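Colleagues,

For the teaching module next term, I've prepared a clean inverse folding example: a structure given as tokens, and then the sequence designed for it. I'd like students to try predicting residues themselves before seeing the answer, so please don't circulate the second half yet.
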């Protein structure tokens, strides 16, 4: 068990150090929480957002950085990591733009536009326990209604 915990902790930080290719990671359990400094948390969080929102490697992003039993507050997605991967994988290669992202006090925020039909804007919030993402909230709205979004699509 200690060996597995160590491997999980190691793979949580490896991709941001070595780049995104690690052929062994699918065989390794999802990250278990371990203590991490705020700087380390922020680095891990941005490795997750890069893997998920930019590279769009959905299973890899979640297997590496999200706890298997993570708490989901989006009512249209079931609890846990695998339900999120299943839901998100239905439309994996939509064009998108990250407008803002930040990390503070164990919580990361990503404000992004997804150019689905119709396009939507989303604010995702993720809580980390040490090294590992353990909880998610989101706010989703139409990007097209002039009444609620009178500005053009620039950030
Ligand atoms: C994403 O944008 C690129 C470049 O504008 C375009 O070629 C591609 O078809 C778009 N993909 C989707 C899924 O909309
Ligand atoms: C940090 O977040 C916790 C909840 O996770 C909250 O209780 C606390 O007040 C927050 N601290 C700051 C400085 O915002
Ligand atoms: C973080 O994870 C550890 C190990 O699973 C657990 O004991 C602890 O209660 C968790 N803390 C928070 C704030 O979620």
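(Answer key — instructors only)
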């Amino acid at each position: 068990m200690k060996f597995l915990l160590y491997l999980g902790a190691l793979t949580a930080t490896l991709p941001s150090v070595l780049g995104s290719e690690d052929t062994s990671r699918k065989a390794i359990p999802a990250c278990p929480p371990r203590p991490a400094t705020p700087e380390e948390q922020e680095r891990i969080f941005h490795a997750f957002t890069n893997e998920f929102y930019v590279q769009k490697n959905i299973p890899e992003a979640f297997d590496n950085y999200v706890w298997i039993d993570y708490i989901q507050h989006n009512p249209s997605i079931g609890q846990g990591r695998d339900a999120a991967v299943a839901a998100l994988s239905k439309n994996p290669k939509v064009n998108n733009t990250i407008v803002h992202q930040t990390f503070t006090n164990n919580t990361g925020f990503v404000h992004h536009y997804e150019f689905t039909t119709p396009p939507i804007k989303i604010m995702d919030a993720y809580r980390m326990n040490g090294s590992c993402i353990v909880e998610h909230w989101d706010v989703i709205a139409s990007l097209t209604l002039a009444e609620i979004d009178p500005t053009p699509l620039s950030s």
